[in-house]
Design a protein that fits this description.
By secondary structure, this protein is mainly α. It is built from 15 helices and no strands.
């Protein structure tokens, strides 16, 4: 604990970077969809499947890492995951087919999700339950930088060197993060009492799922996050094909929209001094549902201009800056020794719903903005309704317990 206190800034920075590997891997190549499709002799809809396969890989892979992180400690499985990511990224540099890219993105996701699971579990390891929402807000500052920097960097890389070099950049970045994990993060002790046999693992996951606080906030937070994934999947076509932005312009608009997410995630830290995580989550979801509904109404009436969609998506993502840290903290607070498994389940639920949203955007593609906008609105409305009708006696606001 002394080491944690002395290196708190570096630890939070490293946890943020680990959490940002996945988002950076998504955001950086979005401006290149058109260039990738042209180079690989296919269409943007086919390339969108590489984003879907990434979501599927992250969702499924987290279930693998959760028990491993609890059994062997946080660092060893994490290092293996980072090495898998680096290998897949190198493969993407040399890939020459769309289907090959889709497969390697799936493998890349299996590596990147180690960082996502480990970082959430380490927050629960290193900090008390009363601080976790604040720590998640601080992580959002690092995570939130990726949507600002990644598309802009990606746009310039594509213009100067071509889209393959995006994966060169990701390879080098992850090697640096791997070195940081080795030399900065504290070691964690393995727990030899945790079995890796299928039956005990599933029993442990089931115990986590039976906790009402975890289930409610994991599903509500995951459904809200899936609106973000619908935006990620649909925005390249909507912004570049419908509204006529080029790669650079798309990158700058993407960065502007991400700024709302970063700003509110930091404002959340101040809000927590006066309001509970439960209250902040509920009102943020209400505002997000309103923004999504208004966007859908304008799209259906063919009145959604470029500036209109930018403003409303900005408001939509700004609400997510309040939703993510609070719902994540509330879902994980009941766990300590089983934080790895709980973190894995949380991520799997979030990314599974996100993958479904991404697939729906591709399936419903009709060369309009309606598929993306309607799915974003539906996700926000459903998430708000989940929290709105929670029986008060079904949640455990600040309790810390372990189900192992």
């Amino acid at each position: 604990m002394t080491q944690t206190k002395n290196n708190k800034f570096l630890i939070i920075l490293m946890l943020g970077l680990l959490s940002a590997i996945g988002p950076f891997s998504i955001d950086m190549y979005l401006p290149g969809f058109k260039a990738i499709a042209l180079d690989l002799q296919t269409n943007i809809e086919h390339i969108q499947l590489s984003l879907t396969s990434f979501f599927i890989g992250i969702a499924g892979g987290q279930m693998i890492y959760g028990p491993l992180l609890d059994r062997f400690g946080r660092k060893s499985p994490l290092l293996i995951g980072l090495l898998i990511y680096i290998g897949a990224s190198i493969g993407c540099v040399f890939i020459q087919s769309a289907d090959g890219l889709i497969f390697l993105r799936f493998v890349q996701a299996l590596g990147s999700c180690a960082g996502m699971v480990a970082s959430r579990a380490m927050v629960r390891d290193y900090f008390p339950p009363t601080e976790t929402a604040k720590i998640f807000s601080m992580l959002m500052l690092v995570i939130g930088i990726s949507p600002i920097l990644a598309p802009t960097i990606g746009g310039y890389i594509i213009e100067i060197w071509g889209w393959h070099y995006i994966f060169v950049f990701l390879t080098v970045l992850t090697i640096l993060i791997l070195l940081g994990v080795i030399f900065v993060l504290p070691k964690s002790k393995p727990n030899t009492t945790i079995s890796l046999l299928p039956a005990p693992i599933m029993k442990g996951f089931w115990k986590v799922l039976k906790n009402p606080q975890f289930l409610i906030y994991a599903i509500a937070g995951g459904t809200a996050s899936s609106g973000l994934y619908a935006y990620l999947s649909g925005s390249p076509f909507v912004m570049m094909e419908i509204y006529g932005l080029n790669e650079k312009q798309y990158g700058w608009v993407f960065a502007l929209l991400a700024a709302g997410l970063i700003t509110t995630s930091q404002l959340n830290t101040l809000m927590l001094k006066r309001f509970s995580s439960e209250s902040i989550s509920k009102y943020a979801l209400m505002a997000q549902a309103i923004a999504g509904s208004l966007m859908l109404i304008l799209a259906l009436s063919n009145s959604l201009t470029l500036y209109g969609i930018i403003i409303l998506i900005f408001c939509f993502l700004a609400c997510q800056g309040f939703v993510f840290p609070n719902t994540s903290a509330l879902a994980l607070n009941p766990f300590s020794k089983s934080a790895g498994s709980a973190s894995a389940l949380l991520g799997t639920i979030q990314l599974s719903i996100g993958a479904i949203a991404s697939v729906l955007v591709s399936i419903a593609h009709n060369r309009t903005n309606i598929p993306m906008v309607s799915i974003m609105a539906a996700c926000a409305i459903v998430s708000y309704l989940i929290l709105l009708f929670i029986p008060k006696n079904k949640t455990i606001n600040t309790a810390s317990l372990d189900l192992n």
